[in-house]
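Hey team,

Sharing the Alpha/beta hydrolase fold-3 domain-containing protein run so nobody has to redo it. Sequence (319 residues) first:
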Amino acid sequence: MSPARQISREVFPFLRVHTDGTVERYAGTDSVPAGFDPETGVLSKDIVISSSTNLSARIYRPKSVPEGRKIPVVVYYHGGAFIVASPAEPMYHHGLNRLVREAEVVAVSVDYRLAPENPLPAAYEDSWAALEWLAGGGGKVDEPWLREYADFERVFLAGDSAGANIIHHLALRRCRSSLAVKIHGLVMIHPYFWGKDPIGLEKADGARKAMVDNWWTFVCPSNEGCDDPYINPFVGGAPPSAEELGCQRVAIFVAERDILCDRGKAYYRSLARSEGQNGKVRVELVETKGEDHIFHLFNPDCEAAAGLFDSWASFINHE
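Structure output:
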């Protein structure tokens, strides 16, 4: 290997950065086209949200929706530690097809910019821009599938891992803004929250703790490190409350063997305490025993994955 192509940083298992500045990704780079999925009967297409930042999304709908019927909207933010993946990655594309079929929703899967080429907070800003686009004209966004099928009184934000982290920050920001979109609920799957001091499983698994530390300090090299407020919702003031999220319902999914599991549980406990204080927000925790991080995407045919998708769809359609 020539000196110009020496490795300057390895971010296992996602990518490496070379001394000449090039980024070599070895995960999350596969893609499948949008279109009709015969297995689920779901249609999808790619749309541009903002040409100035190349912000795009993949939008999904059931092939058949009764005339005049409006269905919930799910705005989805994928995971990948802020450095890999996209809505076109096969496991995300197939997962959204499945959700749309089972929950009967319109879904908008946002393709936010990735680090390190676009350092944080680019992913958060893109994600917010997508929400602003959705809110444009009080729900009169210029997208035929949304205009024809979307029930803007039932908008849900959903995401896994880094995407769940994103929707936490989006909900806080929306609640403090005048953005004209009503968020009915949040679905946070295996949320990517972290911290400097280990808790729970992290204490017994120093190798995985160090690996996740490396992910975060790579995408956000701030003075706060793993206690940066972007990644640790328990620093910088009072712990998060349900009321601050500005929605009616929150579902938090965790997996027993996931190194992030205890952070998700701590987040749930914080919201549940505040839920009891005001009674306006319902917060639920769904734990899958014996499974690891985003198992429902890596092993979508297992019984546990079926249970997760069923719980997710039931949460959306619960009145």
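The first helix runs from residue 90 to 103.

Ping me if you want the raw files.
A.
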